[in-house]
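INTERNAL AUDIT FORM
Audit reference: QA-55
Scope: verify that the stored structure record matches its stored sequence.
Auditor: D.O.
Record contents follow.
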Amino acid sequence: MAFHEKQLPADAPLAAKAMNWIDSRFPLTSMYKAHLSEYYAPKNFNFWYFFGSLAMLVLVMQIVTGIFLTMHYKPDAALAFSSVEYIMRDVPWGWLVRYMHSTGASAFFIVVYLHMVRGLLYGSYRKPRELIWLFGVGIFLCLMAEAFMGYLLPWGQMSYWGAQVIVNLFGAIPFIGPDLSLWIRGDYVVGDATLNRFFSFHVIAVPLVLLGLVVAHIIALHEVGSNNPDGIEIKDTTDENGVPLDGIPFHPYYSVHDMVGVTAFLIIFSAIIFFAPEMGGYFLEYNNFVPADPLTTPLHIAPTWYFTPFYSVLRATTANFMYVLMAAIAAYVVFIWLKSRLPTKIKAAIAVIALIAVVGMLPSILDAKFWGVVLFGLSVVILAFLPWLDYSKTKSIRYRPQWHKYVYILFGISFLTLGYLGIQPPTDARTLVAQVCTLYYFSFFLLMPWWSAMGTFKTVPARVTFHPH
């Protein structure tokens, strides 16, 4: 293909000539138009749509502060804790950078969780946005890996023992578990080798994958267009030029609109950093201000708050709970046979898989610890199947039956309860509550093909509803 450069008048401004030179070699202007000035977003976005741009803001902030921390951090078991103390006490503004990074990790998960809630409420995972959702789940998994590996780096008591507990979970996997745990640690116990490989993954490998997924997430979003609170495709109603009648250019309208959310976020974020960076021990545990000691185990070991809902699922899986799970699996298979319209072959395959699982849950076959790890993983992975579990006639919660909202509210309460219980020391009563919440958590997804299609749905308008403000 021949190279062509647009010819400009000799007296054209220097800036126009420079932009023309760039555009003939790199699609800068066309990218700006495609993703900003001529990317038409629905005009009825509400505050839920702040969290996507806030996630990008926190990601940039984490990368920048991480770079400055890496300049002074020592990935050595003998020096790691003291290097963090050096950053906090001797490096100019080091305490601020460290608190921005540690608080930013919690802020990242808060923003991402709220971003996922918006997708859940408005059906942003439904056709044609399934791939956007899958990329989003991939981003969430990368964030979990990034946070877990970064949590070890301060080399405090909770960092050390938290990593010890989580890595040892992989040892519950039959046959390959012990070798897998050894491979992850790089040693027979969490030590210098573990710290070095976690540092490498935290600083280089996982961020590269994360950035790739973020780019893919945005490209997929701009290919099919943004969802909106009504769940209506604005591309279905366009003018003679193909411009959506209910869409407005992302820039300058939403780029300026998002500055409101950014301002509010930065005010809250700054208040936390300057007045309560540990957030009562939830963002930074008090035990993590004590150097790691392999000979002294903390009284209560728990992961950071953003892992605790899934950690509660792990702890709730006791030997007695296995019998409840076996009964629940059997009941679910019977329910599928009676109520599902799936082909008989698929039903038979589900029954065989369920039978294998039930047999494996017998105490003499596989212990509860293994199944706790399985449920721990499934509680995250099941999110990826959401686009194919929701059979609702409408995307948005606005036009679903009223009782659907209570199903979502109860799901949110269960999730928050699991998160709270994961922080607390286990007792019989707390374990029982966690088990009930675990059952509801999985029932929400596994029964969604039926309950999501039930009830009387409201009529979805032909155009988006919009009230200027």
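Auditor finding: record pair retrieved intact. The two ends are 50 Å apart (CA to CA).
Action required: none
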